[in-house]
Design brief:
Chain lengths: 283, 292
């Protein structure tokens, strides 16, 4: 079949209509970010303006300079990176092994524990905050990295286990069986056959784990009280109070904070589509 | 399972189970315990068992019912727009269309931006006089909407923000589902001259059902439990007219330090969500693929 640029039966008006709708939606998706950009570029004297220009008159990078060099941005960034990377690594290790077991073995308690993972998503997080806070304080984990990393792992594991299991289910078992017959160990089978085939699902899982940890605000706010331990969400939210000159600095710091997540997100977004739901549709 | 030990799967799932028991299982039971106690800021160290009195107090107050009604409105409107929007844009992006990858990336931005930053940006846009939305509305001749001042409008603003936040997740998962439907099925239908709507209703939707059912349940639960939007939009000091059940729990716990009451409300929410999810999944029988 020769490749076509558009659907075969689409007429020009329909194509224009589709592009119009998509462009409007894309603009609406992007606009809040543009709005922050605009505020971050405004000089202090022009913060209150009724102009809708994205690049304001007298645009300046002053807010970025203050945010990055006159505040403890480097410390917050480092804290956020340490927490998010550790949480992602542990989540992946834990959920890849669990998902593999759920996909490849039949064992007592399998469906009960899988259902339990789903049920954990249902309990309202605000309810868990207080007991978790007391637990962490008894473990002397307040103001520590592990005090955030372990809760974040628990937040991400159920989703990752389900996603990865769904994907492993679509990888034919017969390859592994013949490898096993040839004397390969479980570790070899796993690292040489299953992992390479599962990169899309692992991409989706890491994206999920990383962004959840990077963006988490409420647990971090309870666990971190020392200034030197703050992650970006807590630090930035503390920074924005009333709509005053600090808003420009908040906006600048927010943009810098949002960039790593969006870079990770966009670089992995080709894995997004197809990774998550493949197991579901193919039955 | 040839040659593999009976205990192997248990070793493999153990770390995941430990993480969940430590950070969800234990806090859950502990929270249920708190709901039967008089724990608050003063009795924090040695709370007393006080039976069902938190629950009795809860069911006596009208707030629970009105908050529940508001939560249902919140959830139904949000999930409706998340799902229809998600399906609509996934269908558009699943077509042959030059440049659609750029659109896909752009449409996913609300999911990619850190949520608290997005909500704060919207909050700024909803501000009177200097907010972008007010400026646009004023230019259109619409004035006098106090988005952040009038609780009813604040609630509407929160719904708008949350709809914006939630569409990309559904769109991405549905698009994934669409792309794994073999194109031969559509080609056969096209040869038979089936129109687009019939194709959507009789082919796409049933084939997507194994994807749609779990993400509808997940989306409903996430919306029901969505605390960030309302808490950040209202600075956690919102009037009673902007509360949904989870923000009520948050305020009871962290503004009024009324731990027992907050815990009891949470238990009620939990039971509601379990009942909903079980019923919905059973009703849709979505746990079986269409080919089975």
């Amino acid at each position: 079949m020769k490749s076509e640029r558009f659907e075969r039966r689409d007429k020009l008006p329909k194509i224009i209509f589709i592009y119009t709708i998509l462009t409007i939606m894309a603009f609406m998706s992007l606009y809040p970010l543009l709005n922050i950009l605009s505020i971050s570029l405004r000089p202090g004297s022009r913060l209150f303006t009724t102009s809708l220009k994205i690049i304001p008159d007298g645009a300046t990078l002053e807010n970025f300079r203050i945010a990055l060099f006159e505040r403890a941005f480097g410390t917050w960034l480092m804290n956020s990176l340490i927490v998010a990377i550790c949480a992602t690594a542990i989540t992946l290790l834990v959920s890849v092994t669990a998902a593999y077991a759920y996909s490849r073995y039949n064992f007592k308690g399998k469906s009960a524990s899988l259902t339990t993972f789903l049920l954990t998503q249902i309990f309202p997080a605000p309810m868990l905050l207080l007991p978790i806070f007391i637990l962490l304080s008894n473990l002397k984990w307040l103001n520590t990295y592990q005090g955030l990393v372990i809760p974040y792992v628990a937040v991400s594991v159920p989703f990752c286990v389900w996603t990865l299991k769904g994907f492993f289910d679509t990888v034919p078992f017969s390859i592994e069986e013949s490898a096993f017959m040839d004397g390969a160990s479980l570790y070899q089978i796993f690292s040489k056959i299953v992992l390479p085939l599962s990169l899309p699902a692992i991409g989706v899982a890491s994206l999920f784990a990383f962004t959840s940890a990077w963006n988490e605000y409420i647990i971090a706010r309870l666990v971190l009280q020392k200034d030197s331990m703050l992650t970006l969400p807590v630090a930035l939210t503390n920074m924005q109070g009333a709509f005053n000159t600090d808003w420009g600095i908040f906006a600048a710091a927010s943009l810098v904070t949002a960039i790593p997540v969006m870079a990770v997100f966009i670089s992995l977004s080709k894995f997004m589509v197809g990774g998550l739901t493949m197991g579901g549709v193919k039955g | 399972m040839i040659g593999r030990s009976k205990w192997q799967p248990y070793y493999l799932i153990l770390p995941a189970i430990v993480a969940i028991l430590l950070m969800v299982g234990f806090p859950l039971l502990y929270g249920i315990g708190i709901s039967f106690s008089n724990m608050n800021l003063i009795t924090f160290r040695n709370p007393q068992f006080n039976g069902l009195s938190n629950y009795i107090e809860l069911f006596k107050s009208k707030a629970l019912l009105t908050d529940l009604a508001r939560t249902i409105i919140w959830t139904v409107i949000n999930v409706f727009f998340h799902m229809t929007g998600g399906i609509f844009f996934a269908l558009l992006l699943n077509r042959k269309l030059p440049g659609k990858n750029i659109y896909r990336v752009l449409l996913m931005i609300p999911w990619a931006i850190p949520q608290y930053i997005a909500v704060l940006a919207w909050k700024n846009m909803f501000r009177g006089s200097y907010g972008a939305i007010d400026i646009v509305l004023n230019n259109l001749g619409i004035t006098g909407i106090s988005w952040l001042g009038d609780p009813s409008w604040t609630f509407i603003a929160c719904i708008i923000v949350n709809i914006w936040l939630g569409i990309p997740f559904q769109m991405a998962t549905i698009l994934g589902g669409l792309q794994s439907i073999p194109s031969e099925i559509y080609e056969a239908a096209e040869l038979d001259g089936v129109n687009s709507w019939t194709k959507f209703k009789n082919l796409t939707l049933p084939l997507l059902k194994p994807v749609l059912v779990p993400i509808t349940v997940l989306g409903t639960v996430m919306t029901f439990n969505m605390i960030n939007v309302i808490v950040i939009m209202t600075d956690a000091t919102g009037s009673d007219q902007t509360q949904i059940l989870v923000t009520r729990v948050y305020n009871q716990a962290f503004t009024y330090f009324n731990y027992g009451n907050a815990a009891a409300t949470s238990v009620v929410i939990f039971l509601l969500l379990v009942a909903f999810s079980a019923t919905f999944i059973k009703f849709m029988k979505g746990d079986k693929g269409v080919y089975e």
